[in-house]
Amino acid sequence: MNDLPSNNINAEALAVAQRIAKRMLGCGTTRLYDLLNRGELQSFRDGKSRRIVVASLKAYIERQIEAEAAKPAPSWTERATSARMAKRSAKAKAP
After folding, report:
1. Which residue range forms the structural domain that includes residue 22?
2. Which range (32-46, 50-64, 77-91) has the least confidence?
3. How high does pLDDT run on average in the chain?
4. CB atoms < 10 A from the CB of 51, how many?
5. Cβ neighbours, 10 Å, residue 70
6. Residue 63's pLDDT band (boundaries 50, 70, 90)?
7. What is the tally of structural domains in the chain?
8. Residue 53: inside a domain, yes or no?
9. CA distance 54 to 15
């Protein structure tokens, strides 16, 4: 039996180039390097190029989703809705 990997295996990349990481996050070079400098993303040098670890990209996105979910709902929405409803009811009462 052949122990070599088959060409039709769908393998997920473990690390990607910075241009691909930027596309995955939807950000620019400055933002990507800011995340790297703050330690939000992991990377390593592969020769002259820098590779971003895909697992760190996924972990960053998960942290952002959790942080967003923990935020309270903006109160301005409730105030705007109640003001709009009051305006509508005042309009309906007017002759």
Report:
1. 15-93
2. 77-91
3. 86
4. 19
5. 7
6. very high
7. 1
8. yes
9. 5
